[in-house]
Amino acid sequence: MAKKSKKQAQQTGGTPATVALTAAGAQYTVHAYDHDPSHPSYGEEAAEAMGVSPERVFKTLVADVDGTLTVAVVPVAGQLDLKALAAAVNGKRAAMADPTLAERTTGYVRGGISPLGQRKKLPTVLDASASAHPTICVSAGRRGLEVELAPQDLAKLTDAVLAPIGRA
Question: pTM value?
């Protein structure tokens, strides 16, 4: 996996996510593909374009848990279990966040929200299934750009809680 300096990442048009990874000294690989705006699912499109199993490509969703925006990172092959997400952060009720608020808070656009390098660091929960893979892919901060890294590195860099929050 490529390792760039923070300066190199910024010079090569790095996103806040890749700049954060570089600054942390994390090992990662960037995967770029041509985004098709007509594709019905950003995550499935990424998996197909990269030729990676949908169980290894994770989508970043922003939910409101008892009034606190919370990031959920789950496989694109499944869905987010809102009750499980709430339980993972000792909350009572979770609902999907308003998309405009999610974009404004994270600094990313929908379909390109990364769990890394967000404008405001939010509580993060990574689905426990990530631990079954040596590497997983998450958005690198824009549509058509994914970053592949070890799930334990993602958890460490985002201070994520690992919990079974995904469902088939």
Answer: 0.90
